[in-house]
Amino acid sequence: MANGSYKAEDIKILEGLDAVRMRPGMYIGTTSVKGLHHILWEIVDNAIDEAANGFADKIDVKLYKDGSASVEDNGRGIPTDIHPKSGVSGVEVVFTQLHAGGKFNTGNYNYSGGLHGVGASVTNALSEWLKVEVYRNTVFTMEFHSFLDKDSGKIRSGIPKAPLLNTKVKTKKRGTFIRFKPDARVFETVEFSVETIIKRLEELAFLNKGLTIDFYDEKSDFHRVFNYEGGLTDFVKSLNKGNALYPEPIYGKGEKDGIIVEFAIQHTSSYVDRVFSYVNNIPTGEGGMHETGFRSGLTRSFNDFARERNLLKEKDDNFTGDDFKEGLSAVISVKMHNVQFEGQTKTKLGNPEARPAVEYITVNELSRQFKDRKLVKTFEIIISKAAEAAKARIAAQRAKQSARQLKSLENANLVGKLASCSGRKPELNELFIVEGDSAGGSAKQARARQTQAILPLRGKPLNVEKKKLEQILKNEEIGTIIAALGTGIGSEFDLSGLKFHKVIILSDADVDGSHIRILLLTFFFRYMRELINEGHVYIGMPPLYKVYKGNKEEYAYDDKELAEKIEKIGKGYQIQRYKGLGEMDPAQLWETTMSPEKRNLMQVTIDDAAEADRLITVLMGDEVTERKKYIFEHADFDKVDKFAKMKRS
Ligand code: TSJ
Question: Is 58 within 8 Å of 73 (Cβ atoms)?
Fold first, then answer.
């Protein structure tokens, strides 16, 4: 058997993998860079499952110069014995049968794989080659490849070169090693993103307490090891760097009706909530039943505690769920069977049974910990934060009223500084929010009056992090923006009122300019999120340099372009470096930054804005040391803008 070659009938069962080749999208959603990572996560997930069930505690992920990737764990090793039904080794089943991953695991793993869950065979089908080593006393090896079949003219996918081979070489290692090369004939790109990979690996390390994940990129010689002995507790701490209200997160874990629930909570001095939820290690960005159960559990428990400690008097109403949301950071991780995903992006947990189970465990764990004297202080801090929020809630109701009034003020006095455009078609209109009165003046002269409106911002708009909604509304700059856009804010937000379909932030390429961008993005993120979601927010990009000689001149937007432009102008060139928008005269500003034909705009994504929101917390947070550390590490403030993706428009 060891060196037996494969007969036609053996190959028949592999036709399933050919189907994966024909329609990769059906199995991995897309052949974009996202799909490329998907086939890596299929493999990683299997190693994670082995670890999550207590059989492995180390996973190594490596990217090679030849474009391949490998994943190794120190678990039990994929079974090498012959699978009774199919007559081939367990290893072969895993890599040649569709969905084998999930089915094969039933009974072995309690909570296996998730979102992906299409199995390792899909990775095999979409790879040029895939190599397996299993360490179980001796080293077992097996190789698969995809090749062009000359007879049929078709590509055959994931074909074993030979059955699983026991090399008989003794080993002290235990575990599974998989290395594969994604097929360039399948994917739009075969370049893995180190950033994407380490972000997910870190998340997995947080979600699987004690697990060590080692990442190495051969190309860049980049190495990182993730290991969090605190698990979810470390996760929330890392979210809250800089502004936690109490040092130790509240942690709870329990099981109910076969559903395992784990959570960590820590409040911040901020006014937004960040609740991250997961099911079987898969992020549920749209929330769902587990989140609902968790939130009602929190509300119930904290209200009970407040009553018990007489922090809520008999005549007082209970705090609302929203009162406990202010500044709440939490991670909730659920493990369960037969997961159903719903929602627009299929990231919402639909299983109704998750709700009571999570609520029960949340209440149970919290009430148990209320009795723990050590946490009394923490709970009191949470209650006083909620009391503050409840007060603000009443005040905010009034603030909403004034937002409504602002909205109805139209272009009248409040928007005096706004230079409106004459065109009345919002789809064509653009609002430039410009840093500084002098640049604002130039922009007013330069603009295309019909479609471009200018709103100069004097100084920095206020720090939205530390202020309440009502104070923000009182701020003249923000008030002017709200009035100019015509949408209202928060729960009053109505996109149909939008008067400018492009809202373009134009600020200097320096620290102050960067702050203004971040503050505005944070404001939009928190109070006009749909504006970003619908792609209406942009960042204008003034050039950094002018290269000129005689009457020839060229603009450059970055250092790479500068080199090109120098080459173009040739010997005897001179360079002007622009430090601010104010240095350009109206004609230059038009030509480089405002003219729809020539300018560079970056469209802001919701992720960019969330990143700004997170940065704000660090930059403006209470903890000076964290802020200093952050600023030190990110001394290059241009980096802050890396988050906005370049897009010509
Ligand atoms: F994706 C994959 F299949 F290629 C893959 C699987 C990739 C990697 C990196 C690791 C694994 C994997 C599978 N690690 N550990 C396992 N374990 C099993 O498959 C296994 C071992 C023993 C038993 C048993 O009942 O004795 C059961 C199973 C499912």
Answer: yes
